[in-house]
Protein 1
Amino acid sequence: MSDRLLEDWRTHALQLENEVNQVVVGQDNAVRLITTAIFARGHVLLEGDVGVGKTTLLRAVTRGIGGGYQRIEGTIDLMPNDLVYHTYLGDDGRPHVSPGPLLSHGTDLAVFFFNEINRARPQVHSLLLRVMAERTLSAFNREHTFPHMLVFADRNQVEKEETFEIPSAARDRFMMEIPIVVPSSADIMESLIFDTRYHDVDSLVDQVSPGILQFDELNQIAALIQNSVQATPALRKYALDLWLATRDPAQFGIQIEGVDIRRLVIAGASPRGIAMMMRAARVNAWLNGREAVLPEDIHAVFQETIAHRLVFNPIYEMRRTALARELLDQIVHVVSVA
Amino acid sequence: MNMMTHPTLHFLLLLVIGLVSPSAWGANNVSPPEKNPPVDITVSNPAREVGYHVGEILSRTITLKVADQYRILPTSLPIPGNQKRYRNKEQGIELYASKISESHENGQNIYTLDLSYQVFTSSIVAKPAALPPEFIKFSGNGKLFQVRVPSWNFRISPLAVYGSVNISKDMSPLRGPLLISDQRPRIIMNTALAILGLSLLGLLYILGTHAWLPRMGGPFARNYRAIRKLTRDDTGLKTAISNLHEAFKKSCGRSVFSADEIMQVKPAFTPLADELSRFFLLSRCVFFDSSAQNIPADPHAWLKQFSRRCRDIERGMK
C-alpha cells in the first residue's frame, strides 16, 4: 500500500517539476532541489542576482503546492508585528485589528513567501526563527500553529545598501540555500529575451496547474518517505565522516590555496543541518525511484544544505560563497565512500 | 854610464829571446793538428735520475750523424758483458745489450746505437753512479778518428733504509716530494660510497612503496595482491570493494563515484567502462542498496579478475 502511495506521490512530484520547468527554463537543478525541500518539509532560501527569476520560480512552485499562500516584501521599516496583524480604521470609524500575513490563512497556510528577506530588520528575522523552527506563533493570547507551512525566501547578494546580514541562527533554519544563476545555454538566453511568453510573469505562473500536490498531506507523505528510504551503516558512516570534515577539514587533509585551513572554519555544520541533509538525501533517493540512499543522493544536496550553515573566520567571510563551495567540493573528493 | 848600460842590455836581450823563442819553435817545427770531420751526437738518456736499484736496466739511445765518406768502425762499438773500470775498480754498471741501426739521409750516415746497462751494485745509502762514456771510431777518406759519447750521472738507491732517517736532514731536490699513502682513506671512502649507494637503493625501495619493479607499487597492483589473500566471505567481499574504492581514490587523486568520473579523470580506463559500471553496482549492492541488479554471480572471482584488469591498465597494458 505504502509503496503504491509513494509511487503516486512521486508521479505528482515529477509532474510539478515538469510544469515548473516549463515556466522557469534552465533551472532544472534548482527546481529539483525545491521539490526535494518540499517533500523533506524544509524551508528554502533562494540566492541570486536581481532579475534572474527567483520570485517567478517560487510563485510557480507555490501555485503547484496549493493551500494558503502569503507574501511579504522585506523592507527596512518592516517590523515583526507587521507579519502578525494590521490595524486600521473601519467604515464605522472605529479601530480594527485584522490578522497579518502569517495568521490570515490559519492552519492552512502552505507557503509563506518572504521576498528580499535581507532587507528586513533582525527583529523580523528573530520572529522568523521561531515560526520556521516550531511552526507556531503566540499572538492575541493564544498559540497559532502552521503545520503545513513552508517558508520560501529570497535575497540578492548584489545590493548591500539598507540590508541586514541574516544571522547564522536564522540561516540554519533554512533547509537549503539554492543559488539561482542565469542559464548558460545560448538558446535559453535567446528565448528569455525574445519569447514574449516569458515577459508576463502572471500569465506565465498561471500555466502551472494549481494544487498538483495536496498541501495538507505533505507532512504525512514526507514522514512516509523518511521511514521508507533506508540508510545502510556504510552510508551512515559516510555521512558522519562528511559532517566531521565540515567541522575539522584540516584533519581530513583538505587544503585550499591561499587559506589557512585550520583557521577557516569556526563552526561546521550543525546536527540539525546534517539531519536536514539526510532528510533531503532520502527524498532525492525517492524522487529517483530508489529505496535506499546512495552517496550520490547526499552529493545532490550537500552544497545546498550545508554551505549556508558554515561559520567562517571573519577574515574569510568576504569570500564566503566561493570558499564554502571549494571546501565542500574538497570534502566530497577527500572523504572515502566505503 | 857603461857600467849601467851593460847589464841592462843583457837583461833586455834575454827577455826578448825568452818571449819570442816558443812561437818561433812552434812555427818552424810542429805542423798544426789536423781537424776531425764533424760528428753530430744526440743522446737520449733515461728520464729519471734517481731511485735505481740493483738489477734494473737503464737504456740510452745515441744517434751519430757523420758525412757519408766516413763509416763507423764496428770493432769500436761497446761489447755487451763488458764493464767499465775506474781506477781499476769495477763500477757495477755492465753493458747488457747493444744494437746498432744505420740509415742514410741528406749525404750523411746516421747511426742509431741502443745501449742497455744493468746495475750490478747496491749500497746501504744512495750512491752516485754513471753510465760510462763510450768512444766510437770512424774511418774513411783516409782518416781514422774517434768521438766521445758523454757519460750520464745517476743515483743508485739502497734496497732498504737502515736505521732512523731524519727527513729534514735529507732534503735532496732529487728525491722528489714524499707522498702520503691514500690507500686507507680510499678504502674508507669506497666503503662509505658503497653504504651510501645501498642506502639510496633502500630509500628508493621505500619511496617506491616497497616495490622492486616500476609500477609494482601502484595502488591497483597492491590491491590485486591484497585481494588474492582475502577470504571468500562477506567480510572479505566488503574489504575487497573498499580496497578497490581506495585504489581508485589514490589513482584518480580524489574519491570517485561513477564509471564516467573515472574515465574522465583517467581515460586509460575507458576499455573497462562496462566493468567499472558493474563494480559500482556491486559496491552499491553490498554497501548501500541490496536491491541493486546486474551484479556478478561470483563477486569474489569477478573482483579478482577486475582488480587484475585495473592493474594491467595501471601498468600501461590495454
Note: Chain A touches chain B at residues 230, 232, 234-235, 290-296, 299, 332-338 (CB under 8 Å).
Protein 2
Amino acid sequence: MKSGKKAVYPLIYITLIAMMFFAVVFSAGTGSASIGFLNSLKIILSKIPLLERLVSTDGMPSQYFTIIFSIRLPRIAASILVGMGLSVCGVVFQGMFRNPMADPYVLGISSGAVLGAALAFVTGTQYALFSLGLVPLYAFIGAVMATTAVYLIAQKGGKLVTNTLILSGIAIGFLCSSVISIIIIASREQAHRILFWTMGSMTGSSWDTVLVMLPFILAGSLVLLLNAGNINILSTGDESAVSLGVNAGALKRLLLLTASMVTAISVCFCGTIGFVGLIIPHAVRYLTGPDHKKLMPVSALAGGIFLLLCDTAARTLFAPQEIPIGVITSLFGVPFFISLLLRSKRRTLA
Amino acid sequence: MSVLTVENLHFSYGRTKVLKGVSMEFYQGTFYGVIGPNGCGKSTLLKNLYGYLSPASGKVCLDGVDIRRMKSRERSRHIAYVPQETVSGFDFSVFDIIAMGRNPYHSGLDGLSRDDLDHIESAMQDTSTIALRNKSINELSGGEKQRVILARAFTQDSDIILMDEPVSMLDINHQVEIMDLARSLADKKNKTIVCVLHDLNLTAQYTQHIFLMAGGAVVRSGMPGEVLTEEIITGVYNVDVFIGDNKKTGSRIIIPISRL
C-alpha cells in the first residue's frame, strides 16, 4: 500500500498540473461572452513561446483576446493563488496544531484580515472596494493582530495549548465578525457591496492584485514548505519535537506569522472564503499520506484548481448575477466534508 | 563519552514549586533509575534534562556546557527522549516515525542518506520493528508503539537516552522486552539511560543506580541495594512494604502491604 503510494506520487503531480491547465482553459472560455474551450485553448497557446506556431487564431474577434487576457486570466490567476494560499495555510495549521478542525477561518485569522481590509475601505478616501492602496496592509495588520490576540490568550509561558488556541481563535473570529457587521450597517450605501465581499468574491481581481499577491503567497508558501519536515515532527507532539531537535516554540511562531501573512494577502482582495483550507488538506491526505513534504505542494495545486472551478461556477451559474464564492465553496465543501468525516469514522470503527 | 550533570535545579509551574534544588550526575554506560511517589517531580526533571522545560534557576550541563546554550538540533544529537505515550494526529508509517530520529542531522528538505538508512535499519533490527515498518503508528498496540519510539531514539544516535515510565502501560512480557533492550544499550553500546520508573521491582532488577525523589528533591541516591530498603521506602512512600530477595536474579523484591 505504502510503496504503491510512492509509485503514483509523480503521477499525482502530472495529473494535477494537467487538470489545472484544462481548468484554466475551460474557465477562460466560459462566461457571459462564450468563447468556447477550443478558441480559448488557441488564444492561450498563441501567447506561449514555441507553441504559438502550432495554432492559428485567424478570424477570431480581437475582443476575445481582451476578454481572456485582461478580464478572465487575471481573475483565474487570482483564484488559483488564493486557493493555493488558503490550502497551504490549512495544511500548516492542521499539522502544527494536530487538529483537523484548524484552518485560517477557524483560527480567526481570515476574519481579522477581512476586518482590517474593511476598515481600510470605509476609512479610506478611495471609492473602489477592490482597489489596492492600503487594503493589503490593513488586512495584514488585522490578521497579525487577530493572530497575536489568539496567541496571547492561548499561550502559557511561551507554550501553546492546542484546544485553547482553537477556542480563542473562534472567539476572536466572532469578535471580528461582529465589528465587520457594525461596519456594514454603518456604511449604508456600500453595505451591500461589503456584505457581498465578506462572503467572498473574486470580482475585483486584476493583474495588479495578482502582482501584489504573487510574491507574498509564493515566498510565504516557500518558507512553509521548507519547514515541512519540521511540521511532520511537530505533529507528533511538542515534547517529541523538542527532543528531536525542533525548537517547537520558535517554529510555531514562525509558522503562525508566515501563515497569517499568506492568509491576509489571500483574503484581503476577495473576502473570507471558508472551507478551502479545511477540505483540501483532508482530501489530499488520502492521496499523499500525512507527509507534509508531499501534502503541502499537492494541496497547493489541488486548492488552486478547486478555487478556480468554484469561481468559474460563481460567475457563470446564475449569470449575469454572481454568487459569492464563499457560498459555492460551502455548498461543495460541506457535503464533501461530511463524507470525509463519515469515512474516517468508519475507519476508526473498523 | 559525555557526562550529564544537574546543578541545584529549581523549577516551578506558575507558583507551584516542583523541583527544589536537584543535583545529580549521570555517567556514560550506566542505567539510572529515577523513582519516587506521584508528584515528586520525576517527569518534570526529565523534561528539564532535554531542554523542553527551562529551570527557574540552576542548570543542566552536558560535559560542562549548559544545555540551554546549545542549539536544539545540537542538543538532540546528544540526548534522546522516550515519552510515556506517543500520539500522532496523522497516520505516519512506523518507518516515517523512526526516520524522524535522523532529524537532528538534517535541515530543510534533503532526503535520507545511505548513512541515515543504515541507522534506521539497525535500530529496527534491535527493536524487532522491521515487520511493522509499513504499518501506521496509530494501528499499533502499546508495546509495539513503545518499541517504535525506542527505535526512533536509537536512530537519533545519542549518548544519552531519557525514558519516562516506558513500560507502565505494558504487560510483563513487553515490560521485560523493553527493559532488556534498554539495559543492553547501557551494557553493550555504552549508552547512558535515565529511566523514570514506578515499578520498584523492575527498578531493583534493571538499574545500576537509583535516585529516589520526594517533594521535588533527591532524598536518596545509590545502588539499588542501598536505596531499596524497608526503612527508606516506607518513609518516602508512606506504606508498609515487605522486602525480600529474588533468588533467580539476586535483586530485591518489594511488595507493598495492605493497610487493612
Note: Residues 2-349 of chain A form a domain with the ABC transporter involved in vitamin B12 uptake, BtuC fold (CATH 1.10.3470.10).
